[in-house]
Amino acid sequence: QVQLVESGGGLVQAGGSLKLSCAASGRAVSSSVMGWFRQAPGKQREFVAAITWSCGSTWNGDSVKGRFTLSRDNAKTTVYLQMNSLKPEDTAVYYCAAGDSVRRVYVPTQYNYWGQGTQVTVSS
Hints:
- It contains no helices and eleven strands.
- It is an all-beta fold.
- Strands 2, 4, 5, 6, 9, 10 and 11 form a seven-stranded mixed β-sheet that branches. A four-stranded antiparallel β-sheet has the order 1-3-8-7, with no helix packed on it.
- It is globular, with a radius of gyration of 13 Å.
């Protein structure tokens, strides 16, 4: 059984912060990399950030560099996405994903398992 459960989404004003969590269980725990993607209505799924369980190597999408930080707690098999200086264009459903390859962490098809998503809405 694979399970990824996201939490922490909500409504925030521009300039504010939110922290998303993704708790992994089952086979997702043995994956190599955990990623966050987001999808706004009418847009393609966009890479946000990724992190490896082993050494904590991270990647950030261009649109969130300097504002979003990804971390993990191996003991809790949970990854955290700290989002600061939020903008209205950050509004989307945010998805957590687990994959086995660190070669193309930006590509959604590289991930095997996905969470159900959590809504983030940033008001102007």
